[in-house]
């Protein structure tokens, strides 16, 4: 027996089941694919960045070792002898031989290094495994290179050696000078480029990683991605400046997933490139599962529609037929409307409407005021209808909009009632709207003049302050036509934005906001330089003056809040960079860019930014003081070591200061401050101590002892010895013999 009188009901139920089952299935499948793709990308990004961090640290370690080798070369006596002027040819040749031996020793003990050059362009020679003139040197590319900065890593290049073998070299170049002669040389340390690439591969995966390494000047150091270098060159700036640790980027119609990191130590960006399709390939399986699932859902829908019609729809059809007979309603109305009409009564509907109106009235009131402030086309008739509905009377001639920010308390019904009562007691009609948890907008209809209106709002502020409520309020200009309501509200909001410059718990009106024209100027960079100089010189008073001038300048210009915060952060960042360049240990002082950025962004007023900058300057001065003390200690140690090795020579203050590359006067002041004695006193002290050793351990004549410790004049030696030990050298020797 056919369970359906007609097929109409069956098709309704079939469509209902298909929609009810298919839509959730499609939605779940879509979200599953999307979330799976996102999860896969996140996991790939996480693992890739972990691997990149490992590679970055390895590269930094390698480059640090290379730089240490360069510093070791610069500190060697053999290299510095090359700066000595007016030496004989034989001496210079012997020195070059020693340098070549020294270079060969370094190359032999360091497997990363293939060769070392010492280039002196002024004297026309290159020293490596031998001495070459500039024209005869086999690596002409390095001579044409103009390295940027003191320490530079060049792009890989091919070099044909003297034996005819071609090698790919990755070179680091460092320039150093002799202060006394101002002569300059370049040290070039060469690594085998293929060995460098091999060191970057993981032991678990023999396949080379698709790595791209380039510096901040967009010079490609390593390109192992398979993408043409010319195409990559155009994309380097986009890749480096992309936010986050990864990006999805299209190059020449191919999409790649790139994980990246940056070495601040080297100024290099390290990128791991993978084809995007390869990354998300596993989601294809999920997509196929979704398609088969939908087919199964459709089949189930047919089966369930048949069963539902057979067991449930026939009883429902009988119920609808009975309702039609009892209510004497003919065909034409659907079953659900009939059932709903039978269940509900007019009294219940009326009661429900009244209850809902009571609940909805506060929200309708809020929405009505909000709509008035929204800037839509003005409808005067609609406005008066809203005012009448809200039980208000707006029949006075002037209007004003006030925007209140409650600074220390959230907006509550009691606070709103208190504000309304304040205006009602003074016969001022108001409409209000709560725009957020702490912001209230009030439209006031009044006959008061402008100054009286300001006084009225000032009295309200004092009343709330006495109740321990801090508010910042902005008052729009007075207007007489309600079609200007939206513009007045917008002007009040703009005035409230000046809270950042004026401060919290203030009343802001147009007449009190003093903004001069900026003419497109940015903040004065000279103030930043002056501030940095005062930090270096430990002049706290001058620093406070510069900070005050900077803040006053930013407040006097019509800058946005975002720009003011950027300017303060930029000043801090530039100071951090300057201190880091001279070796300041910023981390130990708790100074880092991200924490300063967060502090700047969380500041609510310009005064808070000023205090933040003052605290930062105090920390920076501590870093500078520690740095100076460390530098002074190292200089004094080098000076003492030099004197102890050369006390037997005719030393002068100029000789000592030349050794540490400082002026005699500046070195004397540092030495006196750190040791409590002058350099000449220390020379005398060392000489006297050595003289005592000679007097005690030998029978040398006093004249010979004087010459041995650096005195050509025996009488001067005897006088200084007697001053130090209260007796002559002979008396001291006799005393030692007797005791």
UniProtKB/TrEMBL annotation:
It holds the Pfam family HTH_18. GO terms for molecular function: DNA-binding transcription factor activity; sequence-specific DNA binding. It comes from the Bacteria. SUPFAM superfamilies: Homeodomain-like (SSF46689). InterPro entries: CdaR_GGDEF, Homeodomain-like_sf, HTH_AraC, HTH_AraC-typ_CS, Tscrpt_reg_AraC-type_HTH. Residues 637-735 form the HTH araC/xylS-type domain. The chain crosses the membrane at residues 13-33, 289-313. The keyword Hydrolase does not apply. Keywords: DNA-binding, Membrane, Transcription, Transcription regulation, Transmembrane, Transmembrane helix. This is HTH araC/xylS-type domain-containing protein. The lineage of its organism: Bacteria, Bacillati, Bacillota, Bacilli, Bacillales.
């Amino acid at each position: 027996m056919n369970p359906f009188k007609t097929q109409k009901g069956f098709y309704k139920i079939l469509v209902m089941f298909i929609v009810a089952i298919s839509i959730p299935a499609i939605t779940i499948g879509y979200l599953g694919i999307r979330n799976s793709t996102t999860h896969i990308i996140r996991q790939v990004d996480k693992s890739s960045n972990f691997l990149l961090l490992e590679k970055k640290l390895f590269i930094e370690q390698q480059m640090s070792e290379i730089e240490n080798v360069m510093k070791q070369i610069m500190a060697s006596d053999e290299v510095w002898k090359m700066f000595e002027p007016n030496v004989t040819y034989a001496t210079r040749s012997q020195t070059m031989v020693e340098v070549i031996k020294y270079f060969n020793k370094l190359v032999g003990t360091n497997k990363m290094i293939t060769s070392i050059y010492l280039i002196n362009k002024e004297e026309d020679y290159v020293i490596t495994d031998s001495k070459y003139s500039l024209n005869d040197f086999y690596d002409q590319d390095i001579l044409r290179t103009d390295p940027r900065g003191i320490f530079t890593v060049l792009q890989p290049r091919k070099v044909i050696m003297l034996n005819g073998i071609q090698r790919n070299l990755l070179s680091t170049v460092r320039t150093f000078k002799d202060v006394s002669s101002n002569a300059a040389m370049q040290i070039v340390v060469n690594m085998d480029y293929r060995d460098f690439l091999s060191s970057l591969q993981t032991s678990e995966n023999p396949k080379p990683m698709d790595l791209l390494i380039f510096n901040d000047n967009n010079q490609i150091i390593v390109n192992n991605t398979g993408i043409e270098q010319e195409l990559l060159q155009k994309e380097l700036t986009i890749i480096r400046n992309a936010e986050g640790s990864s990006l999805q980027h299209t190059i020449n119609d191919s999409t790649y997933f790139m994980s990246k990191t940056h070495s601040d130590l080297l100024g290099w960006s390290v990128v791991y490139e993978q084809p995007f399709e390869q990354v998300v390939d596993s989601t294809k399986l999920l997509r196929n599962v979704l398609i088969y699932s939908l087919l199964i859902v459709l089949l189930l829908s047919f089966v369930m529609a048949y069963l539902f019609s057979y067991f449930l729809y026939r009883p429902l059809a009988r119920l609808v037929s009975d309702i039609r007979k009892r209510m004497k309603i003919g065909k034409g109305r659907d079953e659900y409307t009939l059932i709903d009409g039978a269940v509900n009564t007019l009294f219940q509907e009326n009661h429900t409407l009244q209850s809902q109106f009571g609940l909805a009235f506060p929200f309708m009131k809020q929405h009505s005021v909000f709509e008035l402030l929204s800037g839509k086309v003005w409808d005067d008739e609609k406005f008066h209808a809203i005012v009448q509905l809200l039980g208000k009377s707006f029949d006075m001639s002037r209007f004003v909009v006030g925007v209140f920010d409650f600074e220390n308390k959230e907006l509550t019904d009691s606070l709103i009632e208190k504000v309304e009562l304040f205006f009602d007691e003074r016969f001022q009609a108001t409409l209000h709207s709560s725009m957020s948890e702490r912001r209230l907008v009030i439209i006031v209809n009044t006959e008061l003049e402008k100054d009286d209106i300001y006084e009225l709002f000032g009295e309200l502020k004092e009343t709330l302050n006495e109740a321990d409520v801090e508010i910042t309020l902005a008052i729009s200009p007075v207007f007489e036509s309600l079609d200007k309501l939206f513009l007045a509200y917008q002007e009040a909001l703009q005035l409230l934005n000046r809270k950042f410059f004026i401060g919290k718990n203030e009343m802001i009106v147009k007449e009190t906001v003093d903004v001069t024209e900026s003419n497109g100027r940015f903040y004065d960079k000279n103030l930043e330089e002056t501030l940095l100089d005062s930090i270096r010189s430990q002049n706290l008073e001058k620093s406070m003056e510069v900070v005050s001038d900077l803040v006053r300048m930013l407040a006097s210009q019509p800058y946005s809040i975002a720009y003011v915060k950027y300017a303060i952060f930029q000043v801090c960042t530039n100071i951090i960079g300057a201190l880091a360049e001279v070796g300041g240990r910023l981390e130990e002082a708790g100074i880092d860019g991200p924490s300063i950025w967060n502090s700047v962004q969380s500041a609510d007023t310009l005064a808070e930014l000023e205090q933040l900058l003052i605290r930062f300057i105090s920390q920076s001065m501590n870093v500078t003081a520690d740095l100076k003390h460390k530098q002074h200690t190292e200089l004094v140690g080098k000076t003492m070591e030099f004197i102890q090795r050369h006390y037997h020579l005719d030393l002068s203050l100029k000789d000592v200061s030349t050794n540490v590359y400082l002026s005699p006067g500046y070195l004397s002041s540092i030495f006196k401050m750190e040791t409590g004695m002058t350099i000449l006193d220390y020379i005398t002290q060392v000489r006297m101590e050595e003289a005592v050793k000679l007097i005690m351990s030998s029978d040398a004549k006093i004249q010979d002892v004087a010459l041995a410790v650096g005195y050509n004049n025996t009488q001067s030696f005897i006088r200084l010895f007697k001053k130090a030990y209260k007796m002559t050298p002979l008396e001291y020797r006799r005393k030692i013999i007797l005791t």
